[in-house]
Amino acid sequence: MSNAAVRTAIFPVAGLGTRFLPATKAVPKELLPVIDTPLIQYAIDEARAAGIERMIFVSHPSKSSIERHVRHDADLGHALRQKGKGKIADKLERDALDDENQEFVFVMQDKPLGLGHAVNCAAKHVLPGAVAVILPDDLILGERGCLSEMVEAYETSKTGHMVATMEVSREAVSSYGVLDAHGSDGKVIYAAGMVEKPAPEKAPSRHAVVGRYILDASIFGDLDALEPGAGGEYQLTDAIAAGIGRLGLAGFKFSGRRFDCGSKQGMLAATLFVARQDPEYAEVLEEFGAVEYGQRVAAE
Fold first, then answer.
1. Quick one: DSSP state of residue 187?
2. Which residues make beta-bridge pairs with 267?
3. Helix axes 39-49, 86-95, angle to 10 degrees
4. How does pLDDT run across 278-292, given as a tens digit for each residue?
5. Helix, strand or coil for residue 132?
6. Where does residue 129 fall: left (phi above 0), alpha (psi -120 to 50 degrees), or beta otherwise?
7. Kind and range of the H or E run holding 191
8. What's the CATH fold of domain 8-262?
9. How far apart are CA 213 and CA 163, in angstroms?
10. pLDDT tens digit string along 130-150?
11. pTM, whole model, 2 decimals?
């Protein structure tokens, strides 16, 4: 079995970011920076590196600043160059998306009806074939982007749905969806299903699912057929489960390091990890006793 190239990536960015209030009252959590780079920029760069042709941002009307960040701002670039700041102007231009060089679409999710609903909001705009889903607050840093690794593995895999996975401790499995694994082929782990947040003693494995997905195009039909679950939400994992019998499911053990930047602790860890890579921050890390921690984080 050989899967076609993955051409579309969906970015669900409509959430309120309540764990970071009051900071996220005015600033979307996707624009919170690790040093000076917003989380959404890391996600965009990862999608670009994976050869994604169209990016679909499922946002909320209150979060227009995300679109402002994503789009090229010619006036800002001109003003920066007028002030002799051409280097940062060039970087902003490279980072931004523009209609001539990259297809991108913004659609609105007006109500918080779950990740499955958010993904389905993008259905009318996807290109033919499988689609990627990237959760920007799951930051994955490594020499090669997680999505690039997944796309390469997906194209030769024997599965229709693929999810990024990492091994966690037995005590931590209750915080994740966990694969019911039954075999592996290198970094690809084949699974009979997923168990959402199992008790440690009942978890079928320690392969935890994190925020990268490559999903067969039939996911949208399965999302349409879903009944709402707890809180009236439509869960993406339920739609994935509905297709396992037809398509198969696999996890992918990515090589990078994942930071849960939806939490304050994860955001701090990511910031220290990135700072540790740059000698410019060595004095600050040492002054506040973060050198030893940064070294440990970098080594793990």
1. T
2. none
3. 60
4. 999 988 888 887 656
5. strand
6. left
7. strand 188-196
8. Spore Coat Polysaccharide Biosynthesis Protein SpsA; Chain A (3.90.550)
9. 4
10. 999 999 999 999 999 999 999
11. 0.92
